[in-house]
Structure formats: C-alpha cells, structure tokens
C-alpha cells in the first residue's frame, strides 16, 4: 500500500478537538493500514515527528432505509501523538 493511500481524511469532532491540546490528532485510515504505515504517512505528509499511533476499528451500524435495515460499512481510525510543540496546520484552521 502506498503511503498516500493510507490516510483517508482528518476527523474533526468535538472529542478530537479536545485531544489536540495533548498533541493528538485523529485520522480515518485505510482498513488494511498498520500502525507503522500510518506513522510513516503522517511524518511524510505533514513533516512532523510521530511518537505513538493508536488504532481503533469502528464497527458498522444498522440504519433503517424504508422498511428494511442496512448495515453501514466498518472503518478504521488512528489517533496520532506528535512530539511536544509540533502541530498539523490542517487541524488549526490555517
């Protein structure tokens, strides 16, 4: 898997915004991505030093569509911890 295929999009939620105070950033990543691939992709894309990566598999949810129920797709997210003092500009709104 190429490094630019690993990161799908940044997740900007209330919880992820609070994690930014601890130098942690949240991304949706490819389903087959490993911690090492996420670390390399973030370091290359944003030119920062990554200290730790935590991965979470988010299961799909059951949704109603008319009379039937549909299962949404499962996905994976990564919480990336940066070295103290480093920031990713895409999350800062600049």
Low-confidence stretches: none
**Alpha carbon gap, first and last residue:** 30 Å
Sheet/helix structural class: alpha+beta
Q: Shape from CA axes?
A: globular
The largest sheet, given as strand count, sense and whether it forms a barrel, is: 4 strands, antiparallel
Share of residues in helices: 25-40%
CATH topology: Alpha-Beta Plaits
CATH superfamily: RRM (RNA recognition motif) domain
Q: Note the run of SSEs as H and E.
A: HEHEHEEEEH
Continuous helix count: 4
CATH level 1 class label: Alpha Beta
Kindly state the mean pLDDT as a whole number? 93
* Named CATH architecture: 2-Layer Sandwich
Number of strands: 6
- What's the number of domains? 1
Strand order of the largest sheet: 1-2-6-3
Proportion of beta-strand residues:
35-45%
Overview of this protein structure:
This protein is an alpha+beta fold and 94 residues long. It has one domain (3-92): Alpha-Beta Plaits. The protein has 4 helices and 6 strands, in the order H-E-H-E-H-E-E-E-E-H. Strands 1-2-6-3 form a 4-stranded antiparallel β-sheet. The chain has a two-stranded antiparallel sheet with strand order 4-5. The mean pLDDT is 93.
What's the SSE blueprint?
Blueprint: H1 3-6, E1 7-10, H2 14-19, E2 24-29, H3 35-46, E3 50-58, E4 62-65, E5 68-71, E6 75-82, H4 89-92
Antiparallel strand pairs: 1-2, 2-6, 3-6, 4-5
């Amino acid at each position: 898997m190429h490094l630019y295929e690993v990161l799908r999009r940044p997740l900007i939620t209330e919880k992820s915004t609070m994690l930014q105070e601890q130098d942690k950033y949240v991304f949706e990543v490819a389903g087959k991505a490993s911690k090492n691939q996420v670390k390399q992709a973030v370091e290359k894309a944003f030119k920062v030093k990554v200290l730790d990566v935590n991965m979470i598999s988010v299961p799909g949810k059951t949704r109603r569509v008319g009379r039937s129920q549909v299962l949404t797709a499962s996905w994976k997210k990564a919480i990336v911890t940066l070295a103290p003092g480093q920031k990713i500009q895409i999350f800062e709104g600049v």
